[in-house]
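pinned: reference chain
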Amino acid sequence: MASQVPGFATSFTELAMALLSSSEVVPRARLIAQQVAEMVPDCGVVVYVLDRSGEPVWTPKATAGDVAFDEPQIPLDSGTLGALTEERAPVLFSGARLRREQYGHLHVRRTIVSLAALPVMAGDELVGAIEVLTFDSPLQESSLGSLMELARLGALGLSAGLSYESERNTSLESITRLTALYDLERSFNSTLEMDDLLPLVASKYHDLLKVQAVNVWLVEGQSVRLMNRAGFDPTTEMQTLQGVGQGLAGDLADVGDAVIVNADADERLQRRNAGVEEGAIFSLMAAALLHNGAEVGWVECINKLDGTPFDEDDLFFLTTINVTASSALHNASLLLAERKVAILETLVHVSQDITSTLNLERVLQTIVNAPQAVIPYERAAIALEERGKLKLSAVSGTREIRPGDPHFKPLNDLLQWAGPLFQKEIWVRQHGEEVEDPREETRTKFQKYFADVGYRSFYAVPLADDQGQTGILCFESSDPDFLSLAHQEVIKILAGQATVALRNAQLYREVPFIGLLEPVLQKKRRFLSMEKSRRRLTVAAAVAVAFFLAVCPFPMRLSGNVVVGPQRKGDVTASVEGVVKKVYLREGDRVRQGSLVADLEDWDYRAAAGAAQAKYDTAKSEMNRALANGDATEAGIQRSQLDFWTAELKRAQERMERTHLRAPIDGVIATPYLENMLGRHLAIGDTFAEVIDTSKALVDVAIEEDDVKYLRAGEHASVKLEAFPARTFKGEVQTVSQKSQAAGDGRVYFARVVVGNAGAEMRAGMQGRGKVAAGWHTAGFVLLRGPAAWIYSKLWSWLAW
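pinned: its structure tokens
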């Protein structure tokens, strides 16, 4: 039968122009299919592209005529397309000899008369194919020439479209990864809590890398410990500690290089997967978390969800995002270190307080109240053992416990009931309605106790030494998980210190006069053993001393330790949010009030001021135009707009001005390493630097509370500092503090002395001794007022009403 394709000689100029007007593959494939359909009457056309991103497959991109396709991807060697792949030349099939399996990838409802498969070649590379199905008359081999000319033209268009889409997808992937990196940095820097940051790091990595599991290992000495996980990994338990030779993580940490482990035969993977059937590792990559060259930890990614092994691109992306995570983990570790320092300082403070006195009541109050600075409890209590029973002796926030007080009755009853349980550490918690404890009796008792008091957690440790148990120390909170491992360690250390202090205070209370009576008896024996003349001489000397003490005037000086501070100081604070752009001064530089100390980045504020200025100018122009046209209504509207944008412009200019950080007072910059603040982000109210006024120094002289009644403002004072042992600084008492502070066994008030400091020699923090004048009094009053007051207080507590 003669060919029904008389238009094969038609010029393809219009097709080429149409192909150039579109950049993507699908529109170009659609144009090619339509052109073939116009050249071959009553046919079906399918245009394919060879996808080599993984295993090579045929991907249908466009159809024309009575044909469709069901599968989005077709194997390379499938039917007629497989024959084309082998031949790399046009293949023509007769419909009578075609089997359905050969074109099973096509959805056709009409009888096929002939089928031609044409290769789309870009040089020597096969980039696609065109399948032409005729339903009325067969295609002749002689007619394939024009179709191949079309295929060669289409090859240029499809090849260029594939290159364009590849470049576009690469750019989109880069943008996506940059966006993900920005999101990671913002998320990681949103918290400094290590307990919150570790799960956040693991979950973000898990979502971003699309893997089965992510393990975060942190360095601990010479080993690494698995601190957090996102996903499923049955090969390693949480909190596992691995060193060199103990596991894959320990070995990788010792090597220090980022690695990919893909081989199933790798001995390290085989050891890791031993005994694991579901979720075994077939591909793993790991990279170190480094901060300033120091190894912080490791991130381990296991099994991509798409089943493909990790490659170098994946490893590069992991090492890139590790930089952000490393910085966040380092900042969190610094906060953790600061908290540990605060805990240690609190422990030292508590230890000093409870060991510096033998007053049992003060020891008890210190133990239950002082740790609240570092332990987040709501109530603490101590019960001491008396005659085999526990007696509630101190509760935080309460100075005195009255017998039968109903507020403490539930706690007292619990202590009496659970006395035998407190031979060791105990922690009972309630989550929801469930009380956690292995004993049914304990669960029932605490269920009622928690309902009565409103708390949800009870933690207690025994106070015991080699002589037996002294009592128990307990903490309560409405948060069932209010204690971390670090808090528990602090409590155990505190319990050891408290046991020693309580034991000493109890022994001292049993013999309160032994230190006073023994010296008196010894002196009496020595006096009676003297010769008679010597005793008379001693009596005469005593009378003379008594006369001197009772009659002779003597200047009274109240002395105490001193600490130098600035008379006045001011903080350079940020009144707008921003990043420090430039620092003009350093520690020790002298400034005047209003001097420029630093600048914040002002791009946003400058842009806002520019926008407000533009709106202002527009409103002003519109108002003037309306006035010129005699339109009073429009002029009034624009006048309102002008007033609004005038206010907005003023506010924007004020915000821009606030990016200049200025000194609030005359003085000297006291903040160290101020130049290191460059690039630091400041929130509103954050302190950037401290300025102190050194023209005068304010010296705090600590005066015992027994002597505070003799202090008067305006009295003269002398100060001798350890830094200047040969000099005495003179000053005047400005005021006396209204609130006391604890110091040893007693409390002190501060006489605030103003001392001239023209040479700025006296610096904040210097220490020494100071004396404050308190007028003239008898020598006895000046020298013996302390012991006399102590004796009177004791006699009053024993005898007076």
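why pinned: The longest strand covers residues 553-573. Confidence is low (pLDDT under 50) at residues 1-10.
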